Every structure is written in structure tokens, then in C-alpha cells.
What we know:
By secondary structure, this protein is mainly alpha-helical. It has one domain: ABC transporter involved in vitamin B12 uptake, BtuC (Orthogonal Bundle). 71% of the residues lie in helices and 5% in strands. The chain is built from 15 helices and six strands. It has helices at residues 2-16, 20-36, 53-76, 84-99, 112-136, 141-160, 174-177, 185-202, 206-215, 217-222, 227-253, 265-275, 287-306, 314-329, 331-349; strands at residues 44-46, 49-51, 164-166, 179-180, 183-184, 255-257. Strands 1-2 form a two-stranded antiparallel sheet. It has a two-stranded antiparallel ribbon with strand order 3-6. It has a two-stranded antiparallel sheet with strand order 4-5.
Amino acid sequence: MPEERNSPSYIGVLLRHRLAWPIITLLLLLAVNTAFNDSFLRIEWRDGHLYGSLIDILNRAAPLVLVSLGMTMVIATRGIDISVGAVVAIAAAVAAWMIGGSVAGDESRFPLPLALLAAVGVATLCGLWNGVLVARIGMQPIIATLILMVAGRGIAQLITDGQIITIYYKPYFFLGGGYLAGLPFSLFIVAAVFVLLYLAVTRTALGLFIQAVGINPSAARVAGVRSKRLILGAYVFCGLCAGIAGLLISSNVKSADGNNAGQLLELDAILAVTLGGTSLLGGRFSLVGSVIGALIIQTLTYAIYSLGVPPEINLVVKAAVVFLVMLLQSPEFRAELGLLIRRKTTREAW
């Protein structure tokens, strides 16, 4: 009997955890997909690797997870970066231009490692540019990154000469379309970035410093925290993640499109970060939550297309689901909802 009396409060504690509703949302989306597709959860071993809808979702979510991790660090410092989509396009354009190659697929204009480093390096410089504007010059984050968001598309199109560059160099395809130990190679890249970042924010003072800067930058500066360097580093890391994501995307589609690559990716990343429990006011952040949020976005996208929702309303459906989840995450909304339910129950009892 005591256990039964305590069980509701235990469930309540679990539901109040900031990752509870994102996890519940992800499970519900998986259940919806399973209900409409009997083979959704089926995973097979085919052609030397795992094959199935879940594997496909994980593979396609990899670029979004990377960008979301970088966005998490920026938002945690009270910033925002709406230029990540353009940075993705720039990195993809640089890699495609440097690789080039013939239709035979056995030649590259420059060595592959050099092309990869150049693409990621340019993306990191873009992050540095944003960081300097925000941390050093004091420009508002949304304005600073809006500049690169607009100019970045133009830069990417200049690199590609306004054309879609097709990549033929086969070794490059392994980044976004290859498999290692039966799993997509992109998952290992995401896992490496996540583990390194997670260890940095949990095993060192970095996480505490980021929280301090996000909660109160002035107080953090008085306490001796070098807030400008941390903010600068957050934008640099965000640019780095966007650059790697650009490589994965261009490798997967075997081309680079300066106009459409990474289109609206910044919005999906911001949604993923907020769905995962990171506060847009800064300070409170969750890396695990951002990963779950990215998986929610990708699973929702998969469900929309698999259910045959017309393309012209799929963004509306996505926005409605995200809006509902954000309401459920709000303590104020849950409190008001609980009050209304109690009032209704009391009236029915009378």
C-alpha cells in the first residue's frame, strides 16, 4: 500500500524532469510511425550493413545533431546563430570545388584531406567572424549572424559559380554515405563530437563558466570569468560543427548547391535545442536534450513524408507539433492546465 501511495509522486517527479517531455514526444512519434508502417522498427543486415527506417533517420539526423550541438553552446551564452545554414553551404561549396574530379570518380583536384581541412577551416573562420562581431564589437547576435546568413549564400554561390557542383570522387562519399561496423559512418563522427563536448562541459569548469556567462555575463566577468573568450569560442565551435555538417550533407547527396544547401537548417537547429530543454535566455543547457530534439525533428519529418502529408502543409504540421511540445514543457502552462482540470473535476463532483 505505501508503494502505491508514493507511485504518483514518483511519476510526477519524472514528468517534471526537463528531458521527460522530449523523450515522451520522441516515443510517441516512433509509435505513430510504427502504427502506419509495420516494418518501421524492422532492422535488417543487408549488403554488409544495417538497413531500416531507424538507421535512415539516424543517418539523416546526423548533420542536424552536429549543428544543434554548436547552437546549444551559442544559446547557452545568451546568443543565437542564424547563419549556420549559410555556413553549411559555404563548407560544402569549398569541398566540392577543391575535390572536383572526373566522371570516372578516381581523381580529385586537391588531396581529400586538404579539401576537408579547407572546408572545415573556412567554416570555423565564419564562426570566428560571428564571434568577433558579438564578443569584441558588441553587436547583437541576431544582427551579427544575419549579416553572414545573407552574405554567406552569396559567397557559396560565388564559389560554385551559381551552379550545382556534382562530386564524382568516390572516397568522399564515405563521409555521409559510408558504413563502419554496420552503422553509418556519420554516426561515429557525431558520437566523437558529442563525447568530446560532453566531457569538456562536465569534466572541466567549462560548463560552469558557460552557465555563469549565460545567467549573468556581468557577474561572471566580475568573478574572473573571461566571458568574451567563452562567447567567441562558442561561435567558433558552432561554425566548426556547421562545417562538418556541410561535409556530411554534400557527401550524402554527392553535390554542392550554394543556394539550397542547409536551407532552413538554422531554424531546425534552434527548434531542436529548445525542444531539448535549453533556455533561450541562456545559462541552462542540455547536450543530451539537443540530440533528442534533433531526433524529434527528423522523426517528425520522416512521419510527415511517410504519411503522405501534402508538401505545402508539412511545415505547418511540424510547427504545430513543436508548439504543443513547448507548451507541455512550460511549467506555467502545466500549472494552469492542472488548475483547470481540478476545477472541472470539482464541478462534476458537485
